[in-house]
Amino acid sequence: MKTVLLILIILAVAMGPARALRCHVCSSSSNCKQPQTCPASSRYCRTMTTVEPLSGNLVRKDCADSCMPTYSQQGQVSSGVQSTQCCQDDLCNERLYSAAPTRTLLSSVTLGLALALGLLTSAAPRL
Fold it and tell me: Cβ(61)–Cβ(23) under 8 Å?
């Protein structure tokens, strides 16, 4: 009975309120940094860079519900070409050209369930 109670407590803690993602949200001709808390639906921090040789480049950073990264190869950039970088950690869109790949989400719920399953498996012979 104590094992079941322990598992229920672990699951309750793991399923607690999700923490909102924080991203830099701004628009500028250079690398801007303005941290903000994203809406609950946002899963990505996004950085979009538009190349405009005559009027100056435009950098836009925001929170996004979905994000599709796009890249341009060096030497093949023309006016109006846009690149988009996506990431999923707090304030991960700080750098202008982030090399950080999009990571797979390992939520606290998944972690809690894996821990509970491990406890159940180790306690099963005693039940």
Answer: yes
Answer whether 0.90 is exceeded by the pTM: no
Q: Is residue 41 within 8 Å of residue 62, measured between CB atoms? A: no
Structure tokens at 110: 């998944």
Distance, in Å, from the CA atom of 119 to the CA atom of 3, rounded to the nearest integer, reads 8
* Residue pLDDT tens, the chain, 127 long: 667 655 656 655 454 446 799 999 999 988 899 999 999 999 999 999 988 777 778 999 999 999 999 876 555 555 667 899 999 999 999 987 634 333 334 444 454 556 566 666 666 555 5
Q: Which two tokens stand for residue 5?
A: 């109670």
